[in-house]
Amino acid sequence: MLDSTPKEIIERKGGMINPAKTCQPIGAMYAALGIHKCLPHSHGSQGCCSYHRMHLTRHFRDPVMASTSSFTEGASVFGGVANLKTAIKNVFSIYNPDVMAVHTTCLSETIGDDIPKIIKTSEVPEGKLVIHTNTPSYQGSHITGFSNMTKSMVSYLCEVTKEVKEERVNLIPGFINPSDMREIKRLTKLMGIDFIMFPDTSGVLDTPMTGEFIMYPAGGTKIEDIREAGNSKVTLALGSYASSDAANTLERKCKVPAFTMKTPIGIKATDELIMMLRQKFTQEVPYELEEERGQLVDIMTDNHFQFHGKKVAVFGDPDIVVAMTEFLLDLGMLPVHVLTGTPGMTIGVSVGNFEAEIKAMLDEAGVKGRVKAAGDLFELHQWIKNEPVDLLIGNTYGKYIARAEDLPFVRVGFPVLDRSVHSYFPIVGYKGAMRLLEMITNALLERQDRDASDEDFELVM
Amino acid sequence: MQAIKLTDALIEERKNSITVKGSVEAKQKQSLTCDAESVAGCVSQRACVYCGARVVLNPVTDAIHLVHGPIGCSSYTWDIRGSLSSAADLYRNSFCTDLKEHDIIFGGEKKLAFAIDELVRKYDSRLVFVYSTCVVGVIGDDLEAVCKAAAEKHNIEVIPVQSSGFIGNKSAGYRAACDSLLRLIEPNSGDVKDIVKIPDSINYLGDFNLAGEVWIIKSYLEQIGVKVNVAFTGDSHCDALKKAPAAALNIVQCAGSMRYLAQKMEEIYDIPCLNISFIGLQDTADSLRKIADWFSNEAMLKRAEKLIEKKTAEVKPLLRNYRKKLEGKKAAIFVGGGFKAVSLIKQFKEIGIDVVMVGTQTGSQEEYETINDLADEGTVILDDANPSELEKFMTEKGADLLVGGVKERPLAYKLGMAFIDHNHDRKHPLSGFVGAVNFAKEVYSTVCSPVWKYAKD
């Protein structure tokens, strides 16, 4: 059942089979939700907005609000100017956000609506803002869309208002869960460093139960904080694909030096983040963090033998997969198949060469593996058929491969649609690394238990 | 009954899409505005034309469902529904031409032809549906021509689905899907008049075999002596669909998506049609009688009565127990089609629950009239609602429970309100006698969960 992938590798030119990515607008919508009192707005047909809200709702299990220009045949022939103008008027009079974040769809991009011009000639109430980004779905992926909206936050909002830069770091976290954003903030706080994180979906997509539906929850980066980011001393872009464009734009616009780092998944990437913070702000690393790191190394030691030499296939969003691959190598595992759906060197993303970066890591570790950007899960499945693995790591869509090949499967990334609670626990930082180790060991040990014959079955492992 | 003023917090343009049964305003109004375009800038719960077409066609199990468009359209609809299959499972893959900027500028026809060639070579399928998305509609790729050429080249069926997202709402997508199905079942040779009808046979329209619902209904029909020729489209396949014109009768479950197809089949193949519903105890029993009646077959009618009696006896005591726990609770409904809303009102009545709000994304005028007839005085009835409206009316009417789809679930929960899914995300059947029990059980487990004690504090 559900195994329609042949083993024989086939050259293909005609599109995707079982994609490992989705389209730009959902990334833009997710980023926009990370601004406090912001209503994301989809300039296109209703379906796009509906799908994006549905997909995000399934992943986060929290309400996701966004409005749409509700394009019809008329709008697609004569342009969506009237629709967007009406939408701007309606959004502020009905939903009263502080800011409306417009993103385009493939439809409005193709007919060529000039969004900045429409915004300029629309009636935006005093004190309210409309920002926009271009996110044609036929370019890049949801990660590019996230990057584009984050960059627009900088272009529209960040300013230099002070002569001397503040002792403060800007953190651009990338397309990760609210819990991950919380964890990065906690680490920075522990280092005793003042920060501005944007976008920040914590407190927006992991809200507490209050018995009320709140259109604009307490979380999200405040507009004034995004503005203030222009006065910070340094910007750390976590993940080159999702964050570096915004950081580089900020450097150009407000002379805030930008440093692109890995998403802090695993011990090495977390060390690098902590060291960077320590170095830039001459802070001592507190004992609490050293203790956490020590615990992580302890867990790695306790379990190293079961990781060693195990073959892994990992897929998903490039920033997560890059850091994950590094961590797997640190565990002595062999990431032999590494794939992302997002194209490498994407238009709109200035840095990031997925294939080269992974290849370099594998070469250094002496691991022979396959790497691909802009790949799909059909291809990954073919690779696995030709060179089987012990473990699969990726988003929910991997479950078809895991079932067909009877593989232990760890769900990481976006979207995870078939498991609950995941978005409340981080995978970044030392604590996140511990959690990843728990998931990986449990998956491997459960398999061992399942496969053990009666005489080999034991209480202790 | 609590009075509701429609003027609070509502968009002027939306006023005619909302009514309260029995209110002064309702009496002054001609009728509810529905089947209209959504207001720009609303947080609409509606989906698009492509979505409508995809949900109707996707359950055809042995077809290659190829989305001609950018990646998102295919990603979000990959295995979108829990439509089960008894054999082929090709339909559960996500095939997409993954259009890029280059294709938008120079046209995507070549890439589409390539994709069809590759897929047909790779998979043993005799049927390809090619879905048009928004951007394809705008750049004007000639889907007809590409599909025709591919069909001739490979000697299989390659059928375009004209489902560009902006040409209307979900209903237009249902229609596009039905048009494609009509093209599939059209006989290549011979006269329509020569088709030999299979006695006591039906086509079962508008069931997508979510959680195996088609199988349940099929078993009832077979037990009373009705032969199910083909179901549209749950657990169907190319060959079975092509034999559809041989049925003596069409029965229609989901009217929103399939009424059009039934009408067309009546015109072209002279197959009469019956509206039925297998949702809820009463509707299921009535529908079985209605079908047996139509065949005016005494033996069939007897078998139907026997089946109804046996099954009712099995489920009645269970439903009675749930009813005891649920009596007097209030439910709000917000679902895709009007047909489902009608069935749900009846089903809630069976378990002692009052319906205080009824809304749909794409209900028709006729369906809203039926809803109005069935609803109690004071019930809020609304078309194409947005979350703020849902919140307002559910709170004001003191609903204990919302029935809806994916996006409405967390909204209800945040309000400390119980929720049941009558859409894509459920894993158990809600049709037939067994479905009536599942429904009551699901309502009970959510309404009577201890969690609300903490949520509402």
Automatic annotation (TrEMBL), chain A:
Cofactor(s) it depends on: [8Fe-7S] cluster
Gene Ontology, cellular component aspect: molybdenum-iron nitrogenase complex
SUPFAM superfamilies registered for this protein in UniProt: Helical backbone' metal receptor (SSF53807)
Keyword Membrane: no
GO MF term list: ATP binding; iron-sulfur cluster binding; metal ion binding; nitrogenase activity
EC class name: oxidoreductase
Reaction it catalyzes: N2 + 8 reduced [2Fe-2S]-[ferredoxin] + 16 ATP + 16 H2O = H2 + 8 oxidized [2Fe-2S]-[ferredoxin] + 2 NH4(+) + 16 ADP + 16 phosphate + 6 H(+)
Keyword Acyltransferase: no
Note accompanying the cofactor annotation: Binds 1 [8Fe-7S] cluster per heterodimer.
Keywords for the protein's UniProt record, in alphabetical order: ATP-binding, Iron, Iron-sulfur, Metal-binding, Nitrogen fixation, Nucleotide-binding, Oxidoreductase
One Pfam family from the record: Oxidored_nitro
TM annotation in the entry: none
Domain of life assignment: Bacteria
EC numbers for this chain: 1.18.6.1
UniProt xrefs under InterPro entries: ChlB/BchB/BchZ (IPR050152), Nase/OxRdtase_comp1 (IPR000510), Nase_comp1_CS (IPR000318), Nase_Mo-Fe_CF_bsu (IPR005976)
Domain Nitrogenase/oxidoreductase component, residue spans: 23-444
Quaternary data: Tetramer of two alpha and two beta chains. Forms complex with the iron protein (nitrogenase component 2).
Similarity-based family: Belongs to the NifD/NifK/NifE/NifN family.
Role of this protein: This molybdenum-iron protein is part of the nitrogenase complex that catalyzes the key enzymatic reactions in nitrogen fixation.
Protein name as catalogued: Nitrogenase molybdenum-iron protein beta chain
Organism, as annotated: Desulfofarcimen acetoxidans (strain ATCC 49208 / DSM 771 / KCTC 5769 / VKM B-1644 / 5575)
